[in-house]
Amino acid sequence: MPELPEVEHARQLIEQTAKGYRIIEVGCASDSVVLEGVTAAEIRQALRNRIVCAARRRGKHIWLELDKRPWPCFHLGMTGAFHTANTSPIKLVTSHVVEEKQWPPRFTKLHLTLSNESELVMTNKRRLGRIRLRQDPTGEPPISQLGFDPLLDLPSLEKFSEWLTGRSGAIKSLLLDQSFAAGVGNWIADEVLYQAKISPKRPTHQLSKSEIKIIRLRLRHIIETAVQANADASKFPKTWLFHRRWNKNANSELAGHSIEFITVGGRTTAWVPELQR
């Protein structure tokens, strides 16, 4: 699933392509699963002839600010992506899809033609993504229900500590809770805890002040590093767990230590027991 860095890359692609231009044509699939609470005709009416003023993001959600409301909001789900005719979306490590040459791509749900003659497409193969219309995206669900965004508004150490010490349950589960940290997904949570040398099973209320501090520092560093790399995994530091976590081989190792795979919070979790306490 696209996590914060991949979704931020998509937001930047949208803004670079569409900001300041008018939407001339709107193609929208009549998909009652992907379109939540809205019809294809309503999407076309809301977007056609509107100027794109900005593309915004919070967590894994994106929305377009147009010169007139309502505004379209997007969640990419497991396989959603934005495309232009000249660029390919980020290829996720978990994706086995072969890059397509046809335009527009298969599984297109939204196809915008802009006044600068460029085109922007959203695809969603597994139909787990969503397209919505909102008058006030940040003031309405689901975006209003999100927690802090680690790239946009990471809380102070004092506030972060307060929020963690008041929680029960495993630290990995808390990091995955979108009402706590919006945009953190499975690989980011595993990477944060590996670099912080903390077990994903540790009860949150048992963490020391120094451990909470390192979790916050690692969260900021990992998010910023991945975003600066444009979510291109080949540019992530080679010392990251990320490069070893996808192969559940019994012989998987990192820096001479065995990687184990367990389930925490209902999610497959990669960790290094010899290093993480």
Detailed description of the structure:
The structure is a single chain. This protein is α+β, with helices and mostly antiparallel strands and 277 residues long. It folds into 2 domains: 142 residues, N-terminal domain of MutM-like DNA repair proteins; 115 residues, Orthogonal Bundle (Helicase, Ruva Protein, domain 3), CATH 1.10.8.50. Helices cover 25% and strands 21% of the residues. It contains 6 helices and 12 strands. The strands form 4 sheets. A 4-stranded antiparallel sheet has the order 1-6-7-5. Strands 2-3-4-8 form a 4-stranded antiparallel sheet. A hairpin with a 2-residue loop joins strand 2 and strand 3. Helix 3 packs across helix 6 and helix 5 packs across helix 6. The longest helix has 20 residues. It is globular and about 55 Å long.
Question: Nutshell version of this structure?
Answer:
The protein has about 280 residues and is an alpha+beta fold.
CATH second-level architecture of the largest domain: Alpha-Beta Barrel
Counted by DSSP, the helix tally is 6
For the biggest β-sheet, the strand order reads 1-6-7-5
Count of beta strands = 12
Element string (H = helix, E = strand): HEHEEEEEEEHHHHEEEE
CATH class of the largest domain: Alpha Beta
Q: How would the global form be characterised? A: globular
Gap from first CA to last CA: 27 Å
Please estimate the helix content: 10-25%
What integer is the average pLDDT?
94
Largest sheet features: 4 strands, antiparallel
Give the count of structural domains. 2
The fraction of residues in strands falls at 15-25%
Oligomer: single chain
Class from secondary-structure proportions: alpha+beta
Alpha-carbon Rg, integer: 20 Å
State the CATH topology of the largest domain.
Answer: N-terminal domain of MutM-like DNA repair proteins
- The poorly predicted ranges are none
Superfamily (CATH H level) name of the largest domain: MutM-like, N-terminal
